[in-house]
Amino acid sequence: MSSIASLPVLLKELKLAGMTKVWQTLAKTAVEEHWLPQDYLASLCEQEAADRYHKRVLRHTHEAQLPLGKTLSSFDFDAIKSVKKTQMTALMVDTQWVQRGENVLLFGPSGVGKTHLAAAIGYALIEKGLRVRFSTATALVQMLQKARAELGLMEALTRLDKYVVLIIDDIGYVKKNEMETQVLFELIAHRYESGSLIITSNQAFSDWDQIFNDNMMTVAAIDRLVHHACIIQCQEESYRKKQSLQGRSKK
Prior knowledge:
There is one protein chain. By secondary structure, this protein is an alpha/beta fold. It has helices at residues 7-13, 17-32, 37-64, 85-93, 96-99, 114-127, 137-149, 153-160, 178-191, 215-227, 239-249; strands spanning 103-107, 132-136, 165-169, 196-201, 229-233. The protein has a 5-stranded parallel β-sheet with strand order 2-3-4-1-5. Helix 9 links the parallel strand 3 (165-169) and strand 4. Helix 2 runs antiparallel to helix 3, helix 3 runs antiparallel to helix 6 (114-127) and helix 4 (85-93) packs parallel to helix 6 (114-127). The longest helix is centred in the N-terminal third of the chain and has 28 residues, at 37-64. It is elongated.
């Protein structure tokens, strides 16, 4: 029979960091409150699960590269009235759309909070245990172009598959040339019905011929994105512009 003195070593060997932190404190409480052995074990397991969840959220948040502070609680729904808080909350609470590989498309002019909303969804999904990755469209396309030049495009696309949701910010800033639009289209086609995309754009679909240099590719890309998608229109005047004007009026 093992002695109590060996317990810290055993917990470390089994990589039970959460239990290691609290077993002594909980043992004292268990004695004082006359817990049953199974109650003590259950409390230890709860602490271990909570510790692992916290570490997982921190790890996934770090790798997601989301903009800092862009959560739902910090979004000003009074300023952007075209976006409904209930709709955004639903996307964060019920994640079945992610399991089905559906998309979220956010449209509107610059400064109306599209990136903020996309990031807020990302933070909420991470707390649900899902892996997310945020990138500007320009940076993502450059990475895929480099992979293609090195004959590794398919490997790069496959590596992105570990993220069940890929957030592509400002798709309208992709340059209209064959190399950039081709890898962007291949990404969209690759994730069709298998991985979710959250895309922000300051250009309506009718203007996407300015992104893709081929009409057939434009139609095919839009068709894949909207087949299973939630489309959110942010129609107000730039929120950043309003804040700037308010700041000036106070001087």
